[in-house]
Amino acid sequence: GLNQRSVRERAEKLLQQQPPTVRIQWENRAQREASGELQEALAGDRKALLKLLHEWPFTSVGDTALLSLTKSAFTRGEWEQATSYVALARQRGVPIEHITEQLPDLPVSAVGGGQQIATANNLSRPAPNRLWQWSESVWDEPQLVSSAGGLNQPDLIPALEENVWQVQITNDLVIGRTPLRIVALNKASGNVVWSLKTDTIQRPDYLSNDPSITLSPAELARMSTLGRLTIQGNRVYFYDGFQPLQRGTRPFGARLPAMHIRSKLQPTRLVALDLLPQPRIRWIAGPKPAADYILTTAAGESVLQSPSPLAAQNTNFEFSGLPVVSGECVFALANESESHWVRCLSQQTGELLWEQPVAFRVGNQRGARFSGARKESGFCGVAGNVVVVALSSELAVGLSRIDGRLLWANSTHHAFDNATTRRLVQDDPRPFEPRVIHGRLLWSPPPSRDLYCLDTETGKTLWQVPRQPEGASMLKGSHDSYCAYEGAASLILVGSRHIRAIRHSDGQTIWKLGIPAQTGRGIATANSCLLPIADGSVIAIDLETGTLAGKLPQLESDGVIGGLSSNGSLICATTPTSVQAFEASAAQLERQPQALASLNHSRLLWRAGREDEAIEELLLIAGANGNESAAATQVAVEVLLSNLAAARFEADDSVDVGLTLARLNRFSLTNVQSLRRQILTAGQIPPDALSVIPINADWWIRADVASQELNSSPPQLPPVGTTHWLERQTLIPHASDEAVRLATEMRSKWPEGAESVLLRPPEPDEKTKRFLNELRGSNARSTSIDLRQPPEPSAIHFSEQMLLYNESRLAELLEGASDIPHLPSWHRDRLAVIQVDGQREVYRLDAMTGAVSTGRRLPAPLTVMDAEPNASAPGLLPMFDAETVGMLSLLHKGAPQVLWSRRLPVSGAEIMPVIPGTVGPSFFTVMAGESLFCLHPVTGSVLWRRRLPAGPPAPT
Question: Are the C-beta atoms of residues 445 and 390 closer than 8 Å to each other?
Fold first, then answer.
């Protein structure tokens, strides 16, 4: 009385319960009888695909037919049919993830599959205020203090440059790992819901007191087998029982092998942990732990009974790479002393379904000194019906997911023909984490400097590109480390100091961007990427244009931000001993009612990266004449003025100067704001005319040097002018305008093939003289070159000393200068304060040309301080002596100009003279005698004065 569908479902369930030997026989029969029919059906016969789908379940033939039907339903827009195919794939255990990743518009019900792990489809910037923080104390564990102690302190930030630790965010929990335990935190509060203590590091007795077994903080931070968990549905898979590679029971005596035990810890046990209804050990693959696992909750501690490992399993394995869950199987890469295996385990019971050796070690290729300490590391992934394995021995293989038979192999061993060559390679790049993406393997076996793309169906190399991007903005030695995002047409690769997009088809670079040092892995979606930076902040990158997507507010943290994880509404930063949680700004914005514009809503828009909307809303509030009108006006004007400062003095190309000025014109500015606007818009300096331009996050180069090195046209001079044009008679006396122009052109071009002296130390005088003669050309004044030896220590950089010649007063003035203040990076020239006839004069010096401006006499024998290193008070240098204070401005043509100076009415000055403080956009603090003054930096007017007694009053 059963219909055909019910009979088929019962038959499939019965087949699913059969042992591995029966499943392998069923797969072999499908290959013999239906492989030819499948190839014909893939040409477009949907009816034939449906027939194969029902006739050959749980085989590669049926799985391929199902995947083809799923893609076809999606491209035709048949959403209900696509949903049913995805549900059937999950029921049969067919790996559908690589298909659903390509279907971003597929309904949630089709791709959710009941998984508890939460993912972020739309990445939002983190709100600056920290939601909660949780830290693990390791100070009670002496063996971990040197490895994990103080990892949250700024002093150990360099150790986190290769940090791979990340947490997993579920619907209710944040689950992560520390060197001591696995911990589940409440997603809203950060409180510990439960924790499971692990026996992370197991030392043989003869090594228990040996210090060489200790991991360094950097080595701990890059242990992915320890720092990451695999979560599938309501089950967690983790490695445990880490042991040093040197095996044996002999007493510790020989020191030679022990030198290489350091940082060579490998896991020996794979554990499956069920999360619901309450945590329990599902199964163990590997040796049973010495003691049962202890689960700690708010109610107390409880013992989790550890099931005995299955007798059929070989427990003498060391695992590498992360376990991969696909369908009803768990795939793990395991190493023996001389061989490497792929093991396929049942997800429900841990039973070994099949195992296949993929590589063997023949003899000792590295000598006795290295044989005991080196083990191959590797990666295991799944693409459709192919299990892909990539080993550090430069071998990649593809195995059948059904029975483990070898499908293909690919080796790049020809790149390094012997071990001696390999050891001589200097500056080995950081390893690249392999990734299976859309049926392709991205792989770079160490110490290769190239990135390979392999077809997972055939094993053929599709393309090969260098891991280090080229270009003036790229830092040498920064190689691709991991893939942050894979799109339909492009891949986002991140290195130590760069991020770039490459085409999926041929690996060619689309765009590239230099970034600062990081403290962990970033996260990305289709349009945006967030990266944790060593200064404790997070930067956002627009993946469509390859530019910084604005500036994020400084996060509330302890100075260290770790690897990022997100589920859309929550962003977590992880180190080996801490987790910090930040609410996504978009989640805050959704909770804010949008019926009426408000300052709070504008602030949330700004945090979410929607700056234009935030400014327009501030303009709306400011024009409404409501309670928040004055505050909105002040905020909007400050934001717009800050944008103008960034455009002029920080070369921020993302600022639309014209639009910013148009918005400013809609406000009634105060006198101070009008003055700042005039300063910031008087003669906009184009980015190519700044004194230095950024090469990457750490290195800058002078704009004129860059043009000479690239043999390009010289940069345009800024509208404010330089002393070369204003005081050319000092450079070339009695020369015509044409001679000056030709000499300038010759100075801006380097002879073809000549070496640059600007980027090299000084060489012998004869060679330098010849080169400078070529540089100046025949149209310049014909005089002998007499290079002066700079004083020790030199007041200027050697690259500038190379261009000083005898008709310039530059060297003379520098030698006699009493003050050479430090100027902002955007200012092209230098300043020197000279004592002349008992008076101090300030000169503007162009070290590239030797030009000197006319001296400007200071109103008193004042000392000129360094410029403030910020754009809020651009080009202002405080001056002071015992009783007088003043301000020097760089924003004037020709020589600098004294804005103002005044004597302060002080008392007790003989005890405490004038001490200048901080300069800001509208304040300048000065301590004089027993009084603290706040002056206006542009006008010098006293804004307020406070008396600060030097001590308690004398007794009466």
Answer: yes
